[in-house]
Amino acid sequence: MKANFIRSFMFFSIALCCHAFVLNAQKTATKRVSPPALATVPFQYAQSLIFVKAKINGSRTMYLFLINTGANTTVIDTRTADMLKLPVIREEDTVEGTAGTENVRLHTIKSIDIDKASVKNMEITSRDLSNFVTLNGQKIDGILGTDFLKNFSVTIDFYQKTMAFTNMRAPVGRQKTMPFKIVDGIPRFSVRLNDTFDTYLTYNSAVSMEPSRNNYINVSYSQWQELKRLTPYMNHSNFVAGKGVGGSVYMQVVKISGLRVCELDLNSPYMVVQTKEGYFKRDDAVGFFGNNILEKQRKVTIDFLGERIVLQSMFNPASRSKKPVKRRPIPYFTSY
What is the CA radius of gyration of the chain? Predict the structure, then answer.
């Protein structure tokens, strides 16, 4: 039986840049017109994780979901699924994550609604999420994956803490873009490491990290080996503990000279080397990046319809703060 893949990874992206211009009726000026939002909702943000409220099957109750662009299938906690009496398609299936696999049940669901942003007739999984992430001590009811998100362009304002959903491709003026391809339901980006190694990374919004001014990416062991071959004199930095679907892992961290994604260049990011566990046992496994990088742009649009991330703003309010910031160059991280 083919497993549903729920990829819980960590960090970043390169690729071709696309710029689209919208002309006014007189064609005398370039003007960017944003499509009307189906829904603009607040979200809660904690340790680089995005939490939103959503309805299940049109219920009055609002359920707490973690947004996860690294999961291709939405998950409902088993207690919530049993309470809602969601029809079961299959009692036993598996999901694959960073540290191994877990057993799940497969269900049908009539709809998930975030205000007027709605997706109907989905096949989702259920498993015990009681030991997963919590928000201020509150347990989550589910993990919202790309099977829901792929139907929208989603604008995330990290400063205002709002998410806007539209059913139209995002317009692009002079904004920088990060094109991607959907592979196994997950956004995958072309990237360049150390200006020598062209490879791929996925975007996973469910990587939990301590606040940090540093940038982090995660690479597979095979990617690490190839980078070492091309750049043999990289210095070891430290180790980091992490937790994901299937268990816990302990990984090497290396500081590299740079990472490039289209027009976005990051100097001296930290690179976490994933161990050969779970999904990362595969020879074709690729690493990931999370909101630790995107949050520094303040506002971004994850345009699933146009297959690109649009960097709406390069302003970083935290960078203007005069208060000293405690830096933890090698933070503990968790991927869900």
Answer: 20
